[in-house]
Amino acid sequence: MKNDDPEIHYEAVIAAGNWDLDAAWSRIVELVHDPHSPKPLLLAAIGALGSIRPAEAREILLDLADSNDKEIAEAVKEAPAAAEVLSDDEEDDWIN
User: Fold this and answer.
1) Residue 3 DSSP code
2) CB 44 within 8 A of CB 32
3) Cβ–Cβ under 8 Å, residues 57 and 50
4) Residue 4: its pLDDT value, please?
5) Helical ranges in the chain per DSSP H
6) Tens digits of residue pLDDT in 11-49
7) What distances in angstroms separate CA 79 from CA 3, 4, 63, 70, 72, one per listed residue?
8) CA-CA distance, 60 to 56, in Å (whole number)?
9) Which of 4, 16, 2, 85 is nearest to 45 (CA)?
10) What's the sign of the alpha-carbon dihedral 89, 62, 78, 23?
11) Is 5 exposed, middle or buried (0-12, 13-18, 19+ CB in 10 A)?
12) How does DSSP classify residue 2?
């Protein structure tokens, strides 16, 4: 998770989300809050958050739901936290 190689770092975040790796939670939250996170890494972190701790991820993702960047807003909408916590009717209200 702390590798300087951007590709390895990206793949580590994806793997942490795929494996629901709770030990990676705090580092992934840092990536989401870091305004200098490269966009691909941010998008991977958004997905990983929702996989690792869906209930806690929802609060963090709410901050990103209003992003002017359509890719970020879409990633939030598709994050596992949104799917697990919200029904289809609530999703529209949450994202809009």
Assistant:
1) -
2) no
3) yes
4) 84
5) 6-18, 25-33, 39-52, 54-65, 70-78, 80-85, 88-95
6) 999 999 999 999 999 999 999 999 999 999 999 999 999
7) 24, 26, 13, 14, 10
8) 7
9) 16
10) negative
11) exposed
12) -
The pTM score is: 0.81
Token output for 32: 């989401």
Nearest of 71, 19, 11, 66 to residue 41 by alpha carbon: 11
Which tokens belong to 13? 């975040």
Tokens of 55: 């209930």
- Residues 21/45/78/15 CA torsion (nearest 10 deg): -40
- Burial of residue 85 (number of CB atoms within 10 Å: 0-12, 13-18, 19+): middle
Q: Which position has the token pair 């994806």?
A: 14
Q: Six-digit token pair at 7?
A: 């590709």
- The two structure tokens encoding residue 28: 């992934």
